[in-house]
UniProtKB/TrEMBL annotation:
The keyword Nuclease does not apply. It comes from the Bacteria. Gene3D superfamilies: 2.80.10.50, SGNH hydrolase (3.40.50.1110). PANTHER family: SGNH HYDROLASE-TYPE ESTERASE DOMAIN-CONTAINING PROTEIN, THIOESTERASE 1/PROTEASE 1/LYSOPHOSPHOLIPASE L1. This is Lipase. The keyword Transmembrane helix does not apply. It comes from Streptomyces spinoverrucosus. InterPro entries: Ester_Hydrolysis_Enzymes (IPR051532), Ricin_B-like_lectins (IPR035992), Ricin_B_lectin (IPR000772), SGNH_hydro (IPR013830), SGNH_hydro_sf (IPR036514). Residues 1-29 form the signal peptide. One of its GO terms (molecular function) is phosphatidylcholine lysophospholipase activity. CDD domains: beta-trefoil_Ricin_laminarinase (cd23451), XynB_like (cd01833). Pfam families: Lipase_GDSL_2, Ricin_B_lectin. Residues 240-365 form the Ricin B lectin domain.
Length: 368
């Protein structure tokens, strides 16, 4: 890890807990940075137990707006009375169930801040508790891979009066700072947010906070965002992902079956609104969807090399440059091509000598 990261990382973790190494409030560097926030988790993220259905989201919005941040909360769900109720809080979901939808939602919205509170249902249902923290670590890695320019705020679980959850909660929470520390050591913008200020008096029922409890959650996440500002972690939101349409009418660049496994084929398919047709162009020359990079299989450079998605690794086979209305892989000098100008759904793309044909033309379409 570069030494220049060390002090910002220490400052961020401490500030997320409400302190700094000097014991004073941190200075906040960029309060006007636009924020595209994805509240991610289960029913506590959704806001069960709050009088408005907003949970912590509305008071967090108010605090961030008061700091001067232009705001956009994002997610596939809408809940509560607040003016921007978008979120990714799925009632009843476990860690693995959030992981199953995370790549698609992160691809679609590309947030620059993720607020994560997850694990309550795993513990309350005694679901594979011995590996719950391993699942959380994997989910954090998944989020940072799919949204590498985002700050991820990982919260400890709030108190409950469920005897089942409480027998596991302390050990689960104690593991979170180490998960965060390891992510930071890998250069990721991940911070721990301590929710221990909530007490059983802040609960509406056995599991869910009341309005006072949600206010405390908002305060804690707000400190985390401020600390990220102080550490210089916040980045302007990336351009929203967009569909990429082929020069062959009606066909779009598509990840087969919305798969996320390395080696999943990239193909043409009739244009739709699925997350597997939304792509983001990164400054490193990669094109990304479903948390993975557009990749020339096996580092191939020959005509006919198949194109797929693969974990992003910085290799030359994952670099694409605009060329003659399409995309060229500079390592091979060949273009992203629809074989034989096929109009059939499911035609896997490959590399081919650049020729300017319609089967090598690609147009970015506005998302939505």
């Amino acid at each position: 890890m570069r030494k220049s990261w060390i002090r910002p990382l220490i400052t961020l973790v401490a500030a997320a807990l409400g302190v700094t190494a000097a014991g004073v409030a941190p200075a906040f560097a960029a309060p006007d940075t636009p924020l595209r926030v994805m509240p991610l988790g289960d029913s506590i993220t959704w806001g069960v137990g709050s009088s408005t259905g907003n949970g912590y989201r509305a008071p967090l919005w108010d605090k961030l707006a008061a700091d001067g941040h232009p705001l956009d909360f994002v997610g596939t769900l809408r809940g509560g009375s607040m003016s921007d109720p978008d979120n990714q809080g799925h009632s009843g979901y476990r860690i693995d169930q959030i992981a199953a939808l995370a790549d698609a939602s992160l691809t679609r919205y590309r947030p620059n801040v993720v607020t994560l509170h997850i694990g309550t249902n795993d513990l309350n249902r005694s679901y594979q508790v011995s590996t719950a923290t391993a699942r959380l670590k994997s989910l954090v890695g998944q989020i940072t891979a799919a949204a590498p320019d985002a700050t991820v705020l990982v919260a400890s679980l709030v108190v409950s009066t469920s005897a089942t959850e409480e027998q596991y909660r302390a050990a689960y929470n104690q593991a979170i700072p180490q998960i965060v520390s390891e992510a930071q050591a890998a250069g990721r913008r991940v911070a721990y947010v301590d929710m221990s200020s909530l007490t059983t008096a802040d609960l509406a029922d056995a599991l869910h906070p009341n309005d006072a409890g949600y206010q405390k959650m908002a305060d804690a996440f707000h400190r985390g965002v401020q600390a990220a500002d102080s550490a210089g972690w916040l980045r302007n939101p990336a351009p929203s992902p967009a569909r990429v349409q082929s020069g062959i009418a009606g066909k779009c660049l598509d990840v087969n079956g919305a798969g996320t496994a390395d080696g999943t084929a990239v193909q043409t398919w009739s244009c739709g609104d699925g997350a597997n047709q939304f792509w983001s162009a990164y400054t490193d020359g990669t094109l990304r969807s479903m948390g993975k990079c557009l990749d020339a299989a096996g580092w191939g450079t020959a005509n006919g090399t198949k194109v797929q998605i693969w974990s992003c690794h910085g290799g030359a086979n994952q670099v694409w440059e605009p060329y003659n209305g399409g995309y060229r892989n500079p390592a091979s000098g060949r273009c992203l091509d629809v074989p034989g100008s096929s109009t059939a759904d499911g035609t896997q793309l490959h590399l081919w000598d650049c020729n300017g044909g319609s089967n090598q033309k690609w147009t970015t379409l506005t998302a939505g």
